[in-house]
Amino acid sequence: FTRAAAPLQVFIGELLANERPIATNQTGIIHFGAQENNFQVRFAAANLTNETPVEFSYKLEGLHNEWVNTGRIAEANFAALAPGNYTFLLRARHIGDTAWANMAAPFFFRIATPWYKSWWFLLLSSMVAVVTIVAITRWYLQQQNKTRQLQMEKELAVAEERNRLARELHDGLGSMLSGIRHSMEALEHQTSDTLGRDKLKQNVHNLDTTIAELRQISHNMASVSGVGGLVQAIAMYCQQMQHADRLTINFENLLPPDWTFTDEQAFHLFRLVQELLQNVVKHAQASNAIVQLSSNNQKLYLTVEDDGKGFAPTAMQSRGIGLKNLMQRVAILQGKADVKAAPGEGCSVMIELPMAPQIR
Predict the structure, then answer these.
(1) What is the pTM of this model?
(2) What is the mean pLDDT of residues 6-27?
(3) Among the four 31, 144, 287, 307, which has the fewest Cβ within 10 Å?
(4) CA pair distance 15, 24, nearest whole angstrom
Protein backbone atom coordinates (compact mmCIF):
# COMPACT_ATOMS: atom_id res chain seq x y z
CA PHE A 1 0.00 0.00 0.00
CA THR A 2 1.45 3.38 -1.09
CA ARG A 3 0.40 6.51 0.70
CA ALA A 4 -0.84 9.29 -1.56
CA ALA A 5 1.34 12.37 -1.74
CA ALA A 6 0.36 15.00 0.80
CA PRO A 7 -0.13 18.57 -0.49
CA LEU A 8 3.19 20.07 0.64
CA GLN A 9 4.17 23.71 0.30
CA VAL A 10 7.90 23.90 -0.50
CA PHE A 11 9.76 27.19 -0.14
CA ILE A 12 13.14 28.81 0.62
CA GLY A 13 13.23 29.94 4.19
CA GLU A 14 16.53 31.86 4.15
CA LEU A 15 19.17 32.77 1.59
CA LEU A 16 22.61 34.08 2.50
CA ALA A 17 25.14 35.42 -0.02
CA ASN A 18 28.56 35.72 1.60
CA GLU A 19 26.62 35.58 4.91
CA ARG A 20 24.48 38.54 3.81
CA PRO A 21 20.70 37.89 3.96
CA ILE A 22 18.92 38.09 0.60
CA ALA A 23 15.18 38.56 0.18
CA THR A 24 13.73 35.53 -1.58
CA ASN A 25 10.41 37.10 -2.56
CA GLN A 26 11.99 39.03 -5.46
CA THR A 27 10.83 38.29 -8.99
CA GLY A 28 13.00 37.83 -12.05
CA ILE A 29 16.75 37.35 -11.96
CA ILE A 30 18.60 38.48 -8.88
CA HIS A 31 22.06 39.89 -9.65
CA PHE A 32 25.12 39.36 -7.47
CA GLY A 33 28.59 40.85 -7.71
CA ALA A 34 31.58 38.84 -8.90
CA GLN A 35 32.76 38.36 -5.30
CA GLU A 36 29.31 37.36 -3.98
CA ASN A 37 29.70 33.72 -4.94
CA ASN A 38 29.24 31.82 -1.67
CA PHE A 39 25.64 30.84 -0.87
CA GLN A 40 23.81 29.14 1.95
CA VAL A 41 20.21 28.13 1.27
CA ARG A 42 17.86 27.01 4.02
CA PHE A 43 14.51 25.62 2.92
CA ALA A 44 11.35 24.14 4.41
CA ALA A 45 8.14 22.29 3.55
CA ALA A 46 4.83 22.72 5.40
CA ASN A 47 1.69 20.59 5.62
CA LEU A 48 -0.69 21.28 8.48
CA THR A 49 -2.60 18.00 8.02
CA ASN A 50 0.33 15.59 7.88
CA GLU A 51 3.05 15.39 10.49
CA THR A 52 5.08 12.75 8.64
CA PRO A 53 8.76 13.78 8.34
CA VAL A 54 9.81 15.40 5.08
CA GLU A 55 12.82 14.77 2.87
CA PHE A 56 14.28 17.27 0.36
CA SER A 57 15.96 17.27 -3.00
CA TYR A 58 17.41 20.21 -4.94
CA LYS A 59 19.09 20.97 -8.25
CA LEU A 60 21.22 23.98 -9.18
CA GLU A 61 21.14 24.32 -12.95
CA GLY A 62 24.33 25.96 -14.16
CA LEU A 63 26.35 23.91 -11.68
CA HIS A 64 24.97 20.41 -12.23
CA ASN A 65 21.94 18.88 -13.91
CA GLU A 66 21.13 16.15 -11.41
CA TRP A 67 18.93 16.27 -8.34
CA VAL A 68 20.74 16.11 -5.04
CA ASN A 69 18.90 14.38 -2.19
CA THR A 70 19.61 15.84 1.25
CA GLY A 71 17.25 13.62 3.21
CA ARG A 72 15.81 15.46 6.17
CA ILE A 73 18.60 18.10 6.04
CA ALA A 74 16.95 21.32 4.92
CA GLU A 75 20.05 23.19 3.80
CA ALA A 76 22.38 23.46 0.79
CA ASN A 77 25.72 25.25 0.56
CA PHE A 78 27.56 26.47 -2.53
CA ALA A 79 31.09 27.87 -2.41
CA ALA A 80 33.02 29.88 -5.02
CA LEU A 81 30.46 29.65 -7.78
CA ALA A 82 31.77 30.69 -11.18
CA PRO A 83 30.28 33.73 -12.98
CA GLY A 84 27.12 32.90 -14.91
CA ASN A 85 23.37 32.25 -14.74
CA TYR A 86 21.89 29.80 -12.23
CA THR A 87 18.47 28.32 -11.49
CA PHE A 88 17.76 26.80 -8.07
CA LEU A 89 15.01 24.14 -8.02
CA LEU A 90 13.64 22.59 -4.82
CA ARG A 91 11.27 19.72 -4.12
CA ALA A 92 10.14 17.77 -1.08
CA ARG A 93 7.97 14.80 -0.10
CA HIS A 94 6.84 12.99 2.98
CA ILE A 95 9.09 10.06 3.75
CA GLY A 96 7.51 6.99 2.22
CA ASP A 97 5.73 8.92 -0.54
CA THR A 98 6.69 8.48 -4.20
CA ALA A 99 5.55 11.82 -5.57
CA TRP A 100 7.51 15.03 -5.08
CA ALA A 101 6.05 18.43 -4.43
CA ASN A 102 7.93 21.19 -6.21
CA MET A 103 8.69 24.69 -5.05
CA ALA A 104 6.13 27.11 -6.50
CA ALA A 105 8.69 28.95 -8.69
CA PRO A 106 12.39 28.43 -9.46
CA PHE A 107 14.85 30.87 -7.97
CA PHE A 108 16.91 32.63 -10.68
CA PHE A 109 20.14 34.48 -10.00
CA ARG A 110 23.23 35.65 -11.83
CA ILE A 111 26.83 36.13 -10.67
CA ALA A 112 28.63 38.91 -12.52
CA THR A 113 31.88 38.34 -14.41
CA PRO A 114 34.87 40.06 -12.72
CA TRP A 115 36.23 42.97 -14.73
CA TYR A 116 39.53 41.21 -15.38
CA LYS A 117 37.63 38.34 -17.03
CA SER A 118 35.21 40.47 -19.00
CA TRP A 119 35.28 40.38 -22.81
CA TRP A 120 36.23 44.03 -23.08
CA PHE A 121 39.16 43.61 -20.69
CA LEU A 122 40.37 40.48 -22.48
CA LEU A 123 40.05 42.31 -25.80
CA LEU A 124 41.91 45.33 -24.43
CA SER A 125 44.61 43.09 -22.95
CA SER A 126 45.02 41.31 -26.28
CA MET A 127 45.32 44.64 -28.08
CA VAL A 128 47.88 45.90 -25.56
CA ALA A 129 49.84 42.65 -25.93
CA VAL A 130 49.81 42.92 -29.73
CA VAL A 131 50.85 46.58 -29.63
CA THR A 132 53.63 45.75 -27.16
CA ILE A 133 54.92 42.90 -29.31
CA VAL A 134 54.82 45.09 -32.42
CA ALA A 135 56.62 47.91 -30.57
CA ILE A 136 59.32 45.57 -29.24
CA THR A 137 59.76 43.98 -32.68
CA ARG A 138 59.99 47.41 -34.32
CA TRP A 139 62.50 48.58 -31.70
CA TYR A 140 64.57 45.43 -32.22
CA LEU A 141 64.58 45.87 -36.00
CA GLN A 142 65.49 49.54 -35.61
CA GLN A 143 68.40 48.59 -33.37
CA GLN A 144 69.54 46.06 -35.94
CA ASN A 145 69.30 48.67 -38.68
CA LYS A 146 71.25 51.16 -36.56
CA THR A 147 73.93 48.55 -35.92
CA ARG A 148 74.25 47.77 -39.62
CA GLN A 149 74.23 51.50 -40.41
CA LEU A 150 77.07 52.12 -37.95
CA GLN A 151 79.02 49.20 -39.37
CA MET A 152 78.67 50.59 -42.89
CA GLU A 153 79.69 54.04 -41.70
CA LYS A 154 82.78 52.53 -40.09
CA GLU A 155 83.59 50.70 -43.33
CA LEU A 156 83.23 53.95 -45.25
CA ALA A 157 85.43 55.81 -42.74
CA VAL A 158 88.11 53.12 -43.05
CA ALA A 159 87.90 53.32 -46.84
CA GLU A 160 88.28 57.11 -46.75
CA GLU A 161 91.31 56.84 -44.47
CA ARG A 162 92.88 54.24 -46.76
CA ASN A 163 92.28 56.59 -49.70
CA ARG A 164 93.93 59.44 -47.79
CA LEU A 165 96.97 57.33 -46.93
CA ALA A 166 97.18 56.06 -50.49
CA ARG A 167 97.18 59.63 -51.82
CA GLU A 168 99.86 60.63 -49.32
CA LEU A 169 102.04 57.72 -50.38
CA HIS A 170 101.48 58.32 -54.07
CA ASP A 171 101.58 62.12 -54.16
CA GLY A 172 103.96 62.77 -51.28
CA LEU A 173 106.50 60.02 -50.87
CA GLY A 174 106.14 58.90 -54.50
CA SER A 175 106.91 62.39 -55.77
CA MET A 176 109.92 62.72 -53.45
CA LEU A 177 111.36 59.40 -54.63
CA SER A 178 110.76 60.37 -58.25
CA GLY A 179 112.64 63.63 -57.64
CA ILE A 180 115.56 61.75 -56.07
CA ARG A 181 115.58 59.35 -59.02
CA HIS A 182 115.78 62.17 -61.56
CA SER A 183 118.61 63.83 -59.60
CA MET A 184 120.58 60.60 -59.45
CA GLU A 185 119.96 59.93 -63.13
CA ALA A 186 121.24 63.42 -63.99
CA LEU A 187 124.28 62.85 -61.75
CA GLU A 188 124.88 59.53 -63.51
CA HIS A 189 125.19 61.28 -66.88
CA GLN A 190 127.53 63.90 -65.38
CA THR A 191 129.88 61.38 -63.75
CA SER A 192 132.92 60.32 -65.74
CA ASP A 193 133.97 57.64 -63.29
CA THR A 194 132.81 54.28 -64.68
CA LEU A 195 132.51 52.61 -61.25
CA GLY A 196 130.60 55.57 -59.81
CA ARG A 197 128.33 55.71 -62.82
CA ASP A 198 127.51 52.00 -62.53
CA LYS A 199 126.64 52.43 -58.84
CA LEU A 200 124.41 55.40 -59.66
CA LYS A 201 122.74 53.39 -62.41
CA GLN A 202 122.10 50.53 -59.99
CA ASN A 203 120.65 52.95 -57.44
CA VAL A 204 118.38 54.46 -60.10
CA HIS A 205 117.18 50.93 -60.92
CA ASN A 206 116.55 50.25 -57.24
CA LEU A 207 114.59 53.50 -56.99
CA ASP A 208 112.49 52.47 -60.02
CA THR A 209 111.67 49.21 -58.26
CA THR A 210 110.85 51.04 -55.02
CA ILE A 211 108.61 53.55 -56.82
CA ALA A 212 106.79 50.73 -58.62
CA GLU A 213 106.20 48.87 -55.35
CA LEU A 214 105.07 52.09 -53.69
CA ARG A 215 102.54 52.68 -56.47
CA GLN A 216 101.29 49.11 -56.13
CA ILE A 217 100.88 49.52 -52.36
CA SER A 218 99.10 52.82 -52.91
CA HIS A 219 96.80 51.22 -55.46
CA ASN A 220 96.02 48.28 -53.15
CA MET A 221 95.27 50.59 -50.23
CA ALA A 222 92.93 52.82 -52.21
CA SER A 223 89.29 51.80 -52.26
CA VAL A 224 87.11 52.22 -55.32
CA SER A 225 86.67 55.80 -56.40
CA GLY A 226 84.83 57.22 -59.39
CA VAL A 227 83.60 55.30 -62.43
CA GLY A 228 87.02 54.11 -63.54
CA GLY A 229 88.04 52.89 -60.12
CA LEU A 230 84.71 51.13 -59.56
CA VAL A 231 84.70 49.38 -62.93
CA GLN A 232 88.28 48.24 -62.47
CA ALA A 233 87.62 47.04 -58.92
CA ILE A 234 84.50 45.07 -59.99
CA ALA A 235 86.34 43.49 -62.92
CA MET A 236 89.20 42.39 -60.66
CA TYR A 237 86.81 41.08 -58.02
CA CYS A 238 84.84 39.05 -60.59
CA GLN A 239 88.11 37.52 -61.77
CA GLN A 240 89.13 36.67 -58.20
CA MET A 241 85.76 35.08 -57.38
CA GLN A 242 85.72 32.76 -60.39
CA HIS A 243 86.08 29.08 -59.69
CA ALA A 244 87.77 27.63 -62.74
CA ASP A 245 86.13 24.25 -62.32
CA ARG A 246 82.65 25.48 -61.42
CA LEU A 247 81.81 29.15 -61.89
CA THR A 248 82.38 31.62 -64.70
CA ILE A 249 81.59 35.29 -64.02
CA ASN A 250 81.10 37.72 -66.89
CA PHE A 251 81.25 41.44 -66.15
CA GLU A 252 79.64 43.97 -68.50
CA ASN A 253 80.05 47.72 -68.08
CA LEU A 254 77.46 49.54 -70.18
CA LEU A 255 77.72 52.90 -68.41
CA PRO A 256 78.40 55.94 -70.60
CA PRO A 257 81.89 57.46 -70.27
CA ASP A 258 80.52 60.65 -68.70
CA TRP A 259 78.61 58.90 -65.92
CA THR A 260 79.53 60.30 -62.51
CA PHE A 261 78.85 59.43 -58.89
CA THR A 262 80.47 60.10 -55.54
CA ASP A 263 83.13 58.02 -53.80
CA GLU A 264 80.49 56.98 -51.22
CA GLN A 265 78.22 55.64 -53.96
CA ALA A 266 81.11 53.79 -55.60
CA PHE A 267 82.01 52.27 -52.22
CA HIS A 268 78.49 50.98 -51.55
CA LEU A 269 78.07 49.72 -55.12
CA PHE A 270 81.25 47.70 -54.82
CA ARG A 271 80.06 46.26 -51.51
CA LEU A 272 76.75 45.32 -53.16
CA VAL A 273 78.60 43.43 -55.89
CA GLN A 274 80.70 41.67 -53.24
CA GLU A 275 77.68 40.57 -51.20
CA LEU A 276 75.71 39.38 -54.23
CA LEU A 277 78.60 37.36 -55.67
CA GLN A 278 79.40 35.87 -52.28
CA ASN A 279 75.78 34.65 -52.10
CA VAL A 280 76.16 33.13 -55.58
CA VAL A 281 79.37 31.30 -54.62
CA LYS A 282 78.07 30.10 -51.23
CA HIS A 283 74.49 29.15 -52.05
CA ALA A 284 73.63 29.11 -55.76
CA GLN A 285 75.67 26.11 -57.01
CA ALA A 286 75.81 27.98 -60.31
CA SER A 287 77.97 27.44 -63.40
CA ASN A 288 77.64 30.95 -64.80
CA ALA A 289 76.98 34.41 -63.40
CA ILE A 290 76.65 37.86 -64.96
CA VAL A 291 77.42 41.21 -63.35
CA GLN A 292 76.22 44.21 -65.33
CA LEU A 293 76.32 47.98 -64.85
CA SER A 294 73.92 49.92 -67.08
CA SER A 295 71.88 53.11 -67.17
CA ASN A 296 68.57 54.38 -68.53
CA ASN A 297 66.61 57.62 -67.97
CA GLN A 298 69.04 58.97 -65.38
CA LYS A 299 68.91 55.67 -63.47
CA LEU A 300 71.80 53.37 -62.66
CA TYR A 301 71.16 49.63 -62.76
CA LEU A 302 73.28 46.94 -61.14
CA THR A 303 72.22 43.44 -62.20
CA VAL A 304 73.62 40.15 -60.91
CA GLU A 305 72.22 36.92 -62.37
CA ASP A 306 73.14 33.26 -61.97
CA ASP A 307 71.99 29.92 -63.40
CA GLY A 308 72.07 28.14 -60.04
CA LYS A 309 69.51 26.17 -58.08
CA GLY A 310 67.43 29.24 -57.18
CA PHE A 311 64.97 29.32 -54.31
CA ALA A 312 61.27 29.81 -53.61
CA PRO A 313 60.09 33.43 -53.17
CA THR A 314 58.67 32.44 -49.77
CA ALA A 315 62.23 31.69 -48.61
CA MET A 316 63.28 35.33 -49.02
CA GLN A 317 62.79 36.18 -45.34
CA SER A 318 64.97 33.29 -44.16
CA ARG A 319 68.08 33.99 -46.23
CA GLY A 320 69.99 35.57 -43.37
CA ILE A 321 71.70 38.84 -42.67
CA GLY A 322 73.29 39.05 -46.14
CA LEU A 323 70.01 40.03 -47.74
CA LYS A 324 69.30 42.50 -44.91
CA ASN A 325 72.69 44.17 -45.45
CA LEU A 326 72.00 44.38 -49.16
CA MET A 327 68.63 46.04 -48.60
CA GLN A 328 70.22 48.41 -46.07
CA ARG A 329 72.84 49.54 -48.58
CA VAL A 330 70.18 50.01 -51.25
CA ALA A 331 68.17 52.14 -48.82
CA ILE A 332 71.25 54.26 -48.06
CA LEU A 333 71.56 54.96 -51.79
CA GLN A 334 67.82 55.74 -51.96
CA GLY A 335 67.28 52.94 -54.46
CA LYS A 336 65.19 49.81 -54.73
CA ALA A 337 65.94 46.14 -55.34
CA ASP A 338 63.99 43.56 -57.31
CA VAL A 339 64.76 39.89 -56.58
CA LYS A 340 63.43 37.21 -58.90
CA ALA A 341 64.07 33.55 -58.18
CA ALA A 342 62.47 30.14 -58.57
CA PRO A 343 63.63 26.62 -57.67
CA GLY A 344 65.82 25.29 -60.47
CA GLU A 345 65.73 28.56 -62.42
CA GLY A 346 68.53 30.57 -60.80
CA CYS A 347 68.27 34.05 -59.35
CA SER A 348 68.26 37.59 -60.73
CA VAL A 349 68.79 40.70 -58.60
CA MET A 350 68.30 44.12 -60.18
CA ILE A 351 69.14 47.22 -58.16
CA GLU A 352 67.91 50.58 -59.39
CA LEU A 353 69.59 53.75 -58.12
CA PRO A 354 69.10 57.44 -58.93
CA MET A 355 71.90 59.10 -60.87
CA ALA A 356 73.02 61.39 -58.06
CA PRO A 357 71.32 60.33 -54.80
CA GLN A 358 71.95 62.06 -51.51
CA ILE A 359 73.58 59.60 -49.12
CA ARG A 360 71.50 59.15 -45.98
Answers:
(1) 0.46
(2) 88
(3) 31
(4) 7
